[in-house]
């Protein structure tokens, strides 16, 4: 794959492709700090390959160090809790984000004033083998490129209206399912995958409505087709976390979610969102 010479010239790195998309940069002399890598070529890798894994680098000591690193990438999104979200299972979670259950596909920032361009995840502690908890990423540009014209036409007629209330927001967002990447205009999908009906163990369902389709059968076909395509192994990368992993993603192109994990498994991720330059005002936010 074409990789910037700043990185290729570094013999202490091994650069490999992930399947079906993404690129991994491994530190051969384990434990060197990721701060030693120039960010510009890494940023270019994320924009080209959608996802970058940095493996076998030294871990950041704490959230402040991760946040400082994220600032090299751009302006971190600031939340009521600061810049670093601690993704750890909680005892009695008020929201599914802090549970061990499946997280449906969505894009970050969909309910916020700005949509971040990048997500930076640090795996503080892996969930452990056979415990699940992979973060799932779907390449929506590839999904659209591979869709047949009739399917794509159906998706292109649909608009989602999403309402979600949780600790940090109470917002409504309206977005066409098929829209354009805000920088280069490549068609991408913005979609929050519906979850099973109330009564399951999914805490705090968002309200989702889809318009633009003729009838219930088209609506069912929309969700069936999107689910099949987003989770098709040709478009889905499920990241199995290893302690110390850093993953940087293109949130403008990908949708992401989470596979359920064993309750009580020691899964601990930290996440910082980095805004684009200039920051992308959320085009779908109604309130
Ligand atoms: Fe997310």
Description:
- This protein has 287 residues and is of the alpha+beta class.
- The protein has one domain: Clavaminate synthase-like (Double-stranded beta-helix).
- It has helices spanning 5-8, 39-49, 63-73, 140-146, 149-157, 216-230; strands at 13-17, 23-27, 51-55, 85-88, 103-106, 114-125, 135-139, 159-166, 169-176, 178-180, 187-189, 207-211, 236-239, 246-250, 254-258, 268-281.
- The strands form four sheets. It has a seven-stranded mixed β-sheet, covered by helices on one side. It has a four-stranded antiparallel β-sheet with strand order 5-15-7-13. A three-stranded antiparallel β-sheet has the order 9-8-12, with no helix packed on it.
- The protein is globular and about 60 Å long.
- The termini are far apart.
- Fe (ii) ion is lined by residues 106, 108, 256.
Salient structural properties:
seven-stranded mixed sheet; four-stranded antiparallel sheet; single chain; 287 residues; Double-stranded beta-helix
